[in-house]
């Protein structure tokens, strides 16, 4: 099954193309080496033949046929010329001198040729001879050659070695490509199998790692992290859905109860007006909840970056403090604004106002009665920073990552007005502006910090 998928994979087809291309290149290289080697060796033998032929021709030119015959005899007797071939024939093709019994058949009277002949002392077998013939002025024909049997064997060995190397390379490349492709297909099939298991049984499955820390393990790690993120988001969606259902149940139940009671009672102007007013208030609560969800979703889709401008954070914070000053006085809480006189950031003024307002509202609402809330704006080395500090009960460290989830409410906050969406909006605004949220213990109370990157400053 895996072998069939391996042989049918696009990776294997690409590997075959690469092998073919590589084999062609190697073959061309070996062919060039073979041609260069043979050409070099033949040029050396041709040079030796031409030199010897020139020596014989000079002897003939100086002293005639008898001197040429004598020199050929000397060459044949000299062992250093044992690989040379000589034949001198007259116009009737009768042999006058040389170590060949006759003029080689098929050999021209002029120019180069190759032939096989029995050359003493190796007359038992025909040797491959390369020779050059010429016709002398008196009509005699002279052939000077060289036994190139060794060259022929050498070129044959080079050719055989080249073919063997090319075949070996192709075989090894094919085996390697099948192995690599099989491994690749195996890892892909592992991912596919996990994907099918996830589709059938849920998000609990994870792609197995081989521990090789290669690119496939990195892909598997990234996919597993993506699955973890998806599972987390799905859990948050389920939690948000449960919280929405829980938060909607109370106002809807109250509205139904009032309407049912009014339905069974005689009409009364004052009670009907009170019923309508209470029902409208509950509907406003429900509509406000959905408006907050829609607003958070809009911010998270980054649909409002067109409204980014350079704004003064101190001015926005001052407006928030002025807005909540009356609420703070009602709770006997002191609300102060401190820090630098001007802290510029690049962002959406309305969204920043909403985010700061939500944090200040939480600090007043969940802080200590008669306590203190301080809003501070400063220009830090890394960028602008706004902090809101209170001296209330604070938030446990293990709850810091949860309070920004939608509809998440601490146990001590369940009986105070709210729907658990305020800090979710703050987190969305911070993400849109590239800001970092920090929650720290204020001993007592909570210190909220919103740190903007330096690039957002003017």
**Largest sheet data:** 5 strands, antiparallel
Strand percent estimate: 15-25%
Q: What is the helical fraction, as a range of percent?
A: 55-70%
Number of DSSP strand runs: 12
Q: Roughly how many Å apart are the termini?
A: 63 Å
Helix-strand topology string: HHEEEEEHHHEHEEHEEHEE
List the uncertain runs: 411-415
Radius of gyration: 50 Å
Arrangement of strands in the largest sheet: 2-1-5-4-3
CATH architecture of the largest domain: 2-Layer Sandwich
The residue-averaged pLDDT reads: 80
Structure description:
Pfam families: HAMP, HATPase_c. The chain is built from 8 helices and 12 strands. The chain has helices spanning 2-7, 10-77, 149-201, 215-264, 269-300, 313-330, 349-366, 422-432, and strands spanning 84-89, 95-98, 111-119, 122-135, 141-147, 309-312, 334-339, 344-347, 372-379, 384-390, 436-441, 446-451. The protein has a 5-stranded antiparallel sheet with strand order 2-1-5-4-3. Strand 3 (111-119) and strand 4 (122-135) form a beta hairpin. Helix 7 (349-366) runs antiparallel to helix 8 (422-432).
What's the topology here?
Elements: H1 2-7, H2 10-77, E1 84-89, E2 95-98, E3 111-119, E4 122-135, E5 141-147, H3 149-201, H4 215-264, H5 269-300, E6 309-312, H6 313-330, E7 334-339, E8 344-347, H7 349-366, E9 372-379, E10 384-390, H8 422-432, E11 436-441, E12 446-451
Parallel strand pairs: 7-9
Antiparallel strand pairs: 1-2, 1-5, 3-4, 4-5, 6-8, 9-10, 10-12, 11-12
Helix pairs in contact: 2-3, 4-5, 5-8, 6-7, 7-8
Subcellular location: Membrane
Pfam family, one: HATPase_c
Domain Histidine kinase: 243-456
């Amino acid at each position: 099954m895996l072998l069939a998928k391996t042989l049918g994979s696009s990776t294997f087809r690409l590997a075959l193309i690469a092998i073919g291309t590589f084999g062609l290149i190697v073959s061309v290289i070996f062919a060039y080496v073979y041609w260069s080697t043979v050409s070099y060796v033949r040029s050396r033998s041709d040079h030796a033949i031409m030199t010897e032929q020139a020596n014989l021709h000079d002897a003939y030119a100086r002293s005639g046929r008898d001197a040429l015959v004598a020199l050929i005899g000397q060459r044949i007797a000299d062992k250093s010329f044992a690989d040379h071939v000589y034949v001198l024939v007259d116009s009737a093709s009768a042999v006058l001198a040389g170590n060949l019994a006759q003029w080689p058949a098929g050999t021209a009277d002029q120019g180069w040729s190759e032939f096989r002949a029995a050359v003493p002392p190796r007359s038992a077998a025909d040797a491959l001879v390369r020779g050059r013939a010429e016709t002398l002025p008196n009509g005699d024909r002279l052939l000077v050659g060289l036994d190139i049997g060794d060259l022929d064997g050498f070129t044959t060995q080079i050719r055989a070695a080249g073919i063997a190397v090319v075949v070996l390379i192709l075989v090894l490349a094919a085996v390697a490509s099948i192995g690599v492709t099989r491994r690749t297909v195996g890892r892909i099939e592992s991912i596919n199998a996990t994907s099918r298991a996830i589709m059938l049984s849920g998000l609990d499955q994870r792609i197995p790692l081989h521990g090789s820390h290669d690119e496939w393990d990195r892909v598997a790690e990234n996919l597993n992290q993506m699955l973890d993120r998806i599972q987390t988001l799905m859990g948050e969606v389920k939690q948000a859905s449960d919280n929405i259902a829980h938060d909607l149940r109370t106002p809807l139940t109250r509205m139904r109860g009032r309407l049912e009671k009014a339905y069974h009672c005689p009409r009364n102007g004052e009670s009907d007006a009170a019923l309508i007013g209470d029902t409208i208030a509950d509907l406003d609560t429900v509509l406000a909840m959905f408006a907050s969800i829609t607003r958070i979703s809009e911010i998270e889709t980054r649909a409002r970056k067109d409204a980014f401008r350079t704004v003064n954070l101190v001015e926005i914070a001052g407006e928030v403090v002025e807005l909540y000053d009356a609420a703070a006085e009602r709770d006997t809480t002191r609300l102060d604004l401190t820090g630098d006189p001007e802290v510029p950031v690049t962002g959406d003024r309305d969204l920043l106002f909403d985010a700061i307002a939500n944090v200040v509202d939480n600090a007043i609402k969940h802080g200590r009665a008669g306590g203190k809330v301080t809003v501070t704006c400063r220009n830090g080395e890394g960028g602008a920073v706004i902090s809101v500090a209170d001296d209330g009960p604070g938030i446990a460290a293990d709850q810091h990552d949860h309070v920004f989830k939608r509809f998440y409410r601490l146990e001590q906050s369940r009986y105070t007005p709210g729907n658990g969406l305020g800090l979710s909006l703050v987190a969305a605004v911070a993400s849109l502006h590239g800001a970092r949220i920090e929650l720290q213990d204020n001993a007592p109370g909570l210190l909220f910090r919103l740190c903007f990157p330096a690039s957002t400053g003017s």
